[in-house]
Structures are given as structure tokens and as C-alpha cells.
Amino acid sequence: MGEPVLSTAAVLPCAHGGQARVASVSPRVRVGGTPVLLAGAPAPVAGCANPPPPGPCVTAQFSTAAVRVRVQGRPVLLRSSLAVCAPTGTALLPPVPGQVRVRGV
């Protein structure tokens, strides 16, 4: 059936209370009035409360994305997309998509 496409309305939490913000968005394609998120550069994480060592999550890199849905040649991120935080190596928690109407595979 597919998974919801993530947009800037999505919440991308780390395991320690922080939140990732994907800077790679499409200004042309919107879902529910907000730009869709695209796979690409690492996403900065703000507000992580993990104590040293290894310290707070600084960035998150998505390793999976849509295989059939692309915007401007780049895959869109889905609710099922996986990301790992650096330098902690922990995964981002499952995102809250912000919308559920538009789905991708």
C-alpha cells in the first residue's frame, strides 16, 4: 500500500529527546501545503540530551528512502525511512509523518 511521504510538518525525534531537521526539501512539490523531504545530506539534530561519552546526537543520515517516488531526481523520505545519528550510532525513532494522505513506495 505504501508509506506516508514525509514533509517539513513531520517530527523526526532522536532517542534522547532531540529532533532532526532535514534541510533537503523540494520547493516545488508540497504535501498538505508543506515541502516534501528528500534523501541526501545529513540532517542536523537539535536538543539531544544524551550525556558524554559519546555525547549528543549531532546529525542523522537517512539510509533508506522511496524506491519509486522521486522529486527532482532524488528519492523522497517515507515514514519507514531509516536514519542513524552521529556520533552516537543510535537510530532516529519512527517519525510522526505530519500527513497520511500521500503515500509512496
Explain the overall architecture.
- This protein has strands at 3-4, 12-13, 19-20, 25-31, 34-37, 43-46, 59-62, 70-71, 74-75, 83-86, 103-104.
- The protein is mainly beta and 105 residues long.
- It has one domain: Tumour Suppressor Smad4, CATH 2.60.200.
- The strands form 4 sheets. The chain has a 5-stranded antiparallel beta sheet, with no helix packed on it. A two-stranded antiparallel ribbon has the order 1-11.
- Strand 8 (70-71) and strand 9 (74-75) form a beta hairpin.
- The N and C termini lie close together (8 Å).
What is the β-strand count? 11
Q: Indicate the overall shape.
A: elongated
- The whole-angstrom Rg is 13 Å
Mean pLDDT: 94
Find the structural class using helix and strand composition.
mainly beta
The CATH class is Mainly Beta
Number of helical segments with 4 or more residues: 0
Determine the strand fraction and express it as a percent band: 25-35%
| C-alpha termini separation | 8 Å
The biggest sheet amounts to:
5 strands, antiparallel
Order of helices and strands: EEEEEEEEEEE
The CATH architecture assignment turns out to be Sandwich
CATH topology: Tumour Suppressor Smad4
Low-confidence stretches: none
Structurally, how many domains make up the residues? 1
* Helix coverage percent: under 10%
